[in-house]
C-alpha cells in the first residue's frame, strides 16, 4: 500500500513537472484562455503514491503557481483569481486529509496483519530445512485472501530413530478450518513421540479428533467433521520408509528419470469412526539417497483451469525431478498458479523431502545385497 521512499520521491517529478508546464503554457496562450484551474491535477495525482507531507507540499506549490499566474497578469486580487486560489487550497487540504486517513488505516491493517501472521506461525510452525538425513521444503497456498494458513496442515518431528511427517486436510477451507487444523497439528506433535508405530499414532490422532473436533463445529457450517491425514515414517539408518493413509492422497516419489505414485491402502479419515491399530494398513517403499518424496493435499491435484482441466501435477513434478526441494516447490507453485489463473479455490499444501546421497550408506546397502529389495514390492506389499 505504501511505495518505497525512493519510488515516492521519483514519482514526485510528475506532479511538479505538471505544475511547471501548466504555469509556463498559461503565460504563452492567448489571454482569454485560462489553464490555472488545471493545477488541481498535481495534488490529485500525488495522493496515489505519496503521504500527507508530500501531498501537502505539492498542493502548496500548486497554490503558489496559481497565485503567480494571477500576479503575472496583474489580476492577483481579482475575484476570479482569489476564488481559484482558495478553491485549489481547499482541494489540496482535502487531499492531505485523505492521505492522513489512509495512512492511519494502513498502520492499523499492518498491526492486524502482524498479529495474524504471528498467530498463524504459532499454529503452523515453519519446517526446518534439515531434519536428520533429510532436506525439507514446504509450500502453503491459502485460498482465503490475506491468510497464510487454512484447512490444510503439515508437521514434522525427529524421533529417536528417524523422522515422522504428517500432512492433512480438514473438511472445509480457509479461516473457518484453522481451529480444526490446529487441533490435529497439536495432537500429532505430542503423540508422535509417544507411540512406537504409525497405526498406534493414527489411533491416538483419531481419539483426539473424536474428543475435540465436535466442539469446533460452526453454526454456519453444520455437518460431519473429519480430516484426511497421511503419516510418513523415515528411519535415519534405513531406506525402508513406512506410510499410513487416513483417506489422504498417496505421495509422489521422484527419481532422476521418473515420478511414481506410491500405492497406499487408505483407511477412513479421522473423525469418521474409532478404529483400532489393526484396522490400519501400513505400506512400505524404498526411499533411496537422491530421491525426493513429495507430499501434497487435494487442493493441488484438484486445481482446475478456466476450461475445467485438472492441474497435471505428476507431469509437472516429473520435469523438475532433479531439482532441490526448494527449487522443486518453486517451480510447482509457479506452474500451479499459472494453471489456475493466479487464484486457488481451495487451500493447497506441499512438502518435498530429499534424502541426501551418503557414500557410507550406499556401501552398507550394497553389503545387504537384495535383502532390502525383497521388502519393497508393488501395490500388494503391505503389512498390518
Q: Would you kindly provide a written description of the structure presented here, covering whatever features stand out?
A:
The chain is an alpha+beta fold and 384 residues long. Helices cover 42% and strands 18% of the residues. Strands 1-2-11-10-7-8 form a six-stranded antiparallel beta sheet. A six-stranded antiparallel beta sheet has the order 3-4-5-6-9-12, covered by helices on one side. α6 packs antiparallel against α7. The longest helix is centred in the N-terminal third of the chain and has 45 residues. The N terminus and C terminus are likely disordered.
Produce the secondary structure layout.
Layout lengths: L4 H7 L1 H16 L12 H6 L5 H21 L6 H45 L6 E2 L2 E8 L10 E7 L3 E9 L7 H14 L6 H15 L14 E9 L4 E7 L5 E4 L2 E4 L20 E5 L5 E5 L1 H4 L11 H6 L6 H16 L7 E8 L3 H10 L13 E2 L1
Antiparallel strand pairs: 1-2, 2-11, 3-4, 4-5, 5-6, 6-9, 7-8, 7-10, 9-12, 10-11
Helix pairs in contact: 2-4, 4-5, 6-7
Amino acid at each position: 500500500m505504501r511505495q518505497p521512499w525512493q519510488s515516492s520521491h521519483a514519482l514526485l517529478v510528475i506532479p511538479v513537472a505538471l505544475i511547471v508546464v501548466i504555469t509556463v503554457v498559461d503565460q504563452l496562450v492567448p489571454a482569454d484562455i485560462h489553464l490555472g484551474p488545471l493545477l488541481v491535477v498535481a495534488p490529485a495525482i500525488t495522493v496515489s503514491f505519496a503521504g500527507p507531507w508530500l501531498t501537502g507540499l505539492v498542493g502548496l506549490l500548486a497554490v503558489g503557481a496559481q497565485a503567480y499566474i494571477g500576479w503575472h497578469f496583474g489580476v492577483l486580487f481579482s475575484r476570479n483569481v482569489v476564488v481559484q486560489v482558495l478553491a485549489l487550497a481547499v482541494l489540496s487540504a482535502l487531499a492531505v486529509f485523505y492521505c492522513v486517513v489512509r495512512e492511519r488505516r494502513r498502520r492499523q491493517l499492518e498491526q492486524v496483519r502482524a498479529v495474524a501472521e504471528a498467530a498463524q506461525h504459532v499454529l503452523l510452525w515453519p519446517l526446518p530445512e534439515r531434519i536428520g538425513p533429510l532436506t525439507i521444503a514446504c509450500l502453503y497456498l491459502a485460498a482465503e485472501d490475506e491468510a497464510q494458513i487454512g484447512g490444510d496442515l503439515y508437521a514434522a518431528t525427529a524421533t529417536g530413530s528417524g523422522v515422522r511427517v504428517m500432512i492433512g486436510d480438514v473438511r472445509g477451507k480457509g479461516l473457518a478450518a484453522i481451529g480444526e487444523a490446529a487441533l490435529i497439528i497439536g495432537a500429532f506433535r505430542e503423540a508422535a513421540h509417544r507411540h512406537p508405530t504409525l497405526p498406534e499414532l493414527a489411533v491416538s490422532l483419531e481419539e483426539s479428533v473424536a474428543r475435540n473436533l465436535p466442539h469446533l463445529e460452526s453454526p454456519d457450517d453444520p455437518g460431519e467433521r473429519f480430516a484426511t491425514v497421511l503419516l510418513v515414517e523415515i528411519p535415519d539408518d534405513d531406506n525402508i520408509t513406512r506410510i499410513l493413509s487416513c483417506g489422504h492422497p498417496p505421495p509422489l516419489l521422484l527419481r532422476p528419470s521418473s515420478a511414481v505414485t506410491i500405492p497406499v491402502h487408505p483407511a477412513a479419515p479421522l473423525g469418521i469412526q474409532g478404529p483400532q491399530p489393526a484396522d490400519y494398513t501400513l505400506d512400505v517403499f524404498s526411499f533411496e539417497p537422491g530421491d525426493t518424496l513429495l507430499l501434497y493435499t487435494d487442493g493441488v491435484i484438484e486445481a482446475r483451469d478456466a476450461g475445467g482441466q485438472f492441474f497435471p501435477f505428476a507431469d509437472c513434478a516429473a520435469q523438475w525431478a532433479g531439482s532441490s526441494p526448494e527449487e522443486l516447490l518453486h517451480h510447482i507453485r509457479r506452474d500451479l498458479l499459472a494453471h489456475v489463473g493466479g487464484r486457488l479455490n481451495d487451500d493447497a499444501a506441499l512438502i518435498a523431502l530429499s534424502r541426501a546421497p551418503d557414500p557410507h550408506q550406499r556401501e552398507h546397502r550394497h553389503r545387504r545385497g537384495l535383502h532390502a529389495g525383497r521388502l519393497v514390492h508393488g501395490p500388494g506389499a503391505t503389512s498390518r
